[in-house]
Structure formats: structure tokens, C-alpha cells
Amino acid sequence: MAGSKRSAVVGLSLIGAYLGVSYYLGSYQRNDAVAADLFTNPQQCAASGRYDRAQCDNAYAEASRVNQQSAPRYKSLADCEADFSPGACDRVPPTSAVSTAPTATLFAPVMAGFVIGGAAAALATPAAQPVYRSCAGQQDPRNCISGSVASGATSRFFTGAGYSVTSTGSGSSVSISRSAFSASASSATLSRGGFGARAASISARA
Cα 179 to chain center, whole Å? Predict the structure, then answer.
């Protein structure tokens, strides 16, 4: 009987330790936001004075590379524009100019800018990710206008993996999950509303 009691005490202790670790990790995941900067082009980045021209050019080049590899893909232009905005999507160029095999036509949102991790400002090539202006969650995509916010509409910036970029209200300064700089977008072709579901999934885990 004494052994059973000791086992129960040990078991409860282990459960308590597990819950404590789980709570700590959960809190860490919910509070892993880091300061960063959002720019539309390298010129704007350099003009901010927060990074030198070489850093801005390197970060833009890195974001462009990631954009070509993992921008959200759609089978139809209408589905892409429903998740982003009318006029904000374009045909994806063929991956190989020498291939003679027919390939399906895909569409992707145009890169609206790039975000640089503020913690990496001292690096020669600061961590960078392309961002897209999305109307994910809008009931009527016609209310979302690229480059502006129509009456009652809200357009926001997201990475291809679905991480939201939150403005701090001070110039180029934004807040974004640290995980956004290491996450890559799924290669699956999305359907209408697919990007909203991806972003919602990321938010639920954060």
C-alpha cells in the first residue's frame, strides 16, 4: 500500500512538471514576437536610416528568392484574387525554360514588400521574408483594394507561410513571430479561402 502511495505521489509530481513545462512552452510560443521593419523596396529601406544600402539590397534579394520559391500558388486567378485583392495576383513564370513538358498554369500574389528581422540588423544579410497584402477573412473580396483600405475593409500583410505582420504605428516598425523567419510555405496549391485557413492555423498555434 505504501508503495502505491509513493507511486501516486511520483506520478502526480511528473504530471505537475509536465504541465509546468507545457505552460512555459505555450507562453513562449504566444510571446515570441520580435521587432522588425517592413519596406516596399530597397530604396525605402535605405532611406529609413535603419539599415545600410548593402543590407537592404541583400534582404530584398533574399525575399525575392523566397518569393519565387514559395509564394502561395493557386490554380485560378479568381481564387488568388479572392484571398488577396483584385489586380494583386499574377501568372507564375515557368520553372524551366528548357522543359518541353506541359505545365499547369498557376497564379500567385505579387510580393508587396519585405520584412527584415530587427534583431538581425547587424548582420550583412539580415533575415528577410517576402510579404503579401491579403484580404483573408473578408466576406466580399471586392471590398479589398490593393494599396488601400475600402470602407469597412481591412487588408493586412502576411508572409507566405501565413504569419501576420503587425504595425506598431511608428514608421516602418512592425512586430512579427520569430518563427516567421525560419518557416517556409507549404508547396500545396491553394483553393479559394486557402490562405485564410493557413493564416488562421498559424494564429491558433501561436
Answer: 9
- Cβ(135)–Cβ(160) below 8 Å: no
- Report field, pTM of the whole predicted structure over 0.85: no
CA atoms of 28 and 185, how far apart (whole Å): 22
Do the beta carbons of residue 63 and residue 129 sit within 8 Å?
yes
Cα–Cα distance between 77 and 91 in angstroms, integer? 8
What residues have CB less than 8 Å from 25, skipping those under 6 apart? none
> Scanning the structure block, which residue is given the C-alpha cell 519585405?
114
Per-residue pLDDT of 11-62, as tens digits, reads 433 333 333 333 333 333 445 788 899 999 999 999 999 899 999 999 999 9
**Per-domain boundaries in the chain:** 32-94+103-205
Residue 87: which region, alpha, beta or left (left: phi > 0; alpha: psi -120 to 50)? left
Phi and psi, residue 115, nearest 5° = -115, 135
